[in-house]
Amino acid sequence: MTIDNELIDSLLKNYKKPEDLIGENGLLKQLTKQLLERAMAAELTDHVGYEKHDAEGDHSGNSRNGQSAKTIYRSRCHGTATGPLSRR
User: Fold this and answer.
1) How many Å is the maximal CA-CA distance in the chain?
2) Cα separation, 48 vs 69, whole angstroms
3) Which positions ≥6 away from 46 have C-beta within 8 Å?
4) Residue-wise pLDDT tens for the chain (88 aa)?
5) pTM of whole model > 0.70?
6) Lesser CB count within 10 Å: N end or C end of the chain?
7) CA-based angle 11:13:74, to the nearest 5?
8) HEC readout, 76-87
């Protein structure tokens, strides 16, 4: 997969200093968090076999069951992402 240069330009539009990219609330941390949360949600959708809020999951025995915080550790930074839960 390639990332569109226009997307990168848009993300870096307000970039002024390194902290904007790698600081405590920098772009890298925000992107990592959002990408991981969406990946975990997609993984759960594949696991339970239905989309979030789909009536197909009602009383299926394999239901989505809220969210919980997950601590993510990386070599340069760590943070918390909110991931979905399933009952199984």
Assistant:
1) 51
2) 20
3) none
4) 888 999 999 999 999 998 999 898 899 989 988 998 899 889 888 888 888 878 777 777 777 777 788 777 766 555 666 666 665 5
5) no
6) N
7) 40
8) CCEEEEEEEEEC
The token pair at 23 is 């600081």
Cβ burial 48-62 (10 Å sphere, 16+ → b, else e):
bebeeeeeebeeeee
Q: The tokens 């990592």 sit on which residue?
A: 32
Q: From the centroid of its chain, how far is CA 57?
A: 22
User: Radius of gyration over alpha carbons of the chain, in Å?
Assistant: 17
Give the separation between CA 30 and CA 18, rounded to whole angstroms: 14
